[in-house]
Write a structure and sequence with these properties.
The protein is of the alpha/beta class. Helix content is about 45%, strand content about 15%. It comes from Aliidongia dinghuensis.
Length: about 250
């Protein structure tokens, strides 16, 4: 894919880069000229993503729910490029269960993977953006926060925080040309969803039933929205949750 060179000269960190959405985001940003620094806790997936993008891609594996993991990622970006223009907080992954089926461990894992990865990434990247008076932060949230999807209460607690921190940061840093937004997908056609459908998992028809378009989102449909919010032309959009959801929630 070769589109515009909107991100020529821009440096972008993408967390959760080895996931299906993360890989789509990296392809889109790379096609538009961005220099990429990628993070993920699953090293094999991260390296596969980086390799698929060709040379000059930096990949740093580590647990981004811990400050030290994010510090290593940010240091690699600054060592190589001296700046960070774009941060895509895509790291996540919840344990989807009825609320009373959760254990303290699964609840903690869901909060760590989704909320703390976002908090620490923003905390470590923002000082440089403040210094340069420029930045684009896009958090990947979840439409289930709005529609109350079955068995998603704990996941929604984590992703709801991802939505909420964006509004606070957006107001705090708006005067410095730093925007902070959220892209909230609904169901996305990933290998996990495809396999679950093939196995007749009962959650799949429940999730599809709330989408008027009658299908999950494609990963590239999510990535295109993330890329738009990272562009300079989106500079007057901040503090917003943009749903990519086929109409599962409206307004």
């Amino acid at each position: 894919m070769r589109v515009s060179q909107e991100f020529e000269g821009k440096v972008a960190i993408v967390t959760g880069a080895g996931s299906p959405i993360g890989r789509a985001v990296t392809r889109r940003l790379r096609a538009e000229g961005a220099q990429l620094v990628l993070g993920d806790v699953v090293e094999a997936d991260l390296l596969a993503c980086a390799t698929s993008l060709g040379d000059r891609v930096i990949a740093v594996s580590g647990d981004l729910s811990r400050r030290e993991g994010v510090q290593r990622l940010v240091a690699a970006a600054l060592d190589a490029h001296g700046k960070i223009d774009i941060l895509v907080n895509n790291a996540g992954g919840g344990v989807i269960l009825p609320f009373l089926k959760h254990t303290p461990e699964t609840m903690q894992a869901t909060i760590d993977r989704n909320l703390w990865t976002t908090v620490w990434s923003c905390y470590e990247v923002l000082p440089g953006m403040v210094e340069r008076k420029y930045g684009r932060i896009v958090n990947v949230g979840a439409d289930s926060v709005r529609n109350g999807l079955y068995d998603h209460a704990m996941y929604n607690a984590a992703k709801g925080g991802v939505h909420a921190i964006a509004t606070g940061l957006a107001r705090e840093f708006a005067s410095l040309d730093i925007t902070v937004n959220v892209v909230a997908p609904c169901m996305v056609e990933t290998p996990l969803v495809t396999n679950a459908r093939a196995q007749g998992h009962p959650m799949i028809p429940k999730m599809e039933a709330v989408i008027p378009k009658g299908r999950p989102a494609d990963v590239d449909e999510v990535a295109s929205t993330i890329a738009y919010l990272a562009r300079d032309e989106a500079r007057f959009i901040t503090g917003q949750v943009i749903s990519v959801n086929g109409g599962s929630t409206m307004l």
